[in-house]
Amino acid sequence: MIARTFGLKSICYRLAPGLVSSLRPEVVKAFEQDVIGKMCALELVLVVPERQIEILGEMKTAGDYSPALCRSLIIQTPMERRNNKRRQRRTWVGDNERRKDMVVSLASAW
């Protein structure tokens, strides 16, 4: 809708070109349609493309497209399904104990 207002074909200009190439087309489409926000898109590049689709599906099932849910699903992703090309600067990535505590607290919140 925003793109049409300004006469643009896409609003991918809001994301860096490198990010768009790291995301699955379905995820880019959800971003363009304002289903997911920029924070979710930035988080989703941390996992492999197949996992991006799974996370988007889980968010749709839950009816929650918040960055918090997106992050919690990324935290639960095994390391082998993470994107090794992207440097993960999150504090919970290196600290397994903190990561487990976050997963437990997020699971109890559901």
Task: Produce the secondary structure layout.
Blueprint: H1 2-5, H2 17-22, H3 25-32, H4 38-44, H5 49-62, H6 67-75, H7 91-94, H8 96-109
Helix pairs in contact: 4-6
Task: Please explain how this structure is put together.
Helix content is 60%, strand content 0%. With 110 residues, it is mainly α. The protein has one domain. Helix 4 packs parallel to helix 6. The termini are far apart. 18% of the residues are buried.
Summarize this, please?
The protein is mainly alpha-helical and 110 residues long.
- Percent of residues in helical segments? 55-70%
| H-E string | HHHHHHHH
As a whole number of angstroms, the C-alpha radius of gyration is 15 Å
Oligomer: single chain
Number of helices: 8
Distance between the termini: 33 Å
- Structural class based on helices, strands and sheet pairing: mainly alpha
Q: How many beta strands in the DSSP annotation? A: 0
Q: Give the CA-based shape.
A: globular
> What summary fits the major beta sheet?
none
Q: Which percent range describes the beta-strand content?
A: under 5%
| Rounded mean pLDDT score | 79
Provide the number of structural domains.
1
Uncertain residue ranges = none
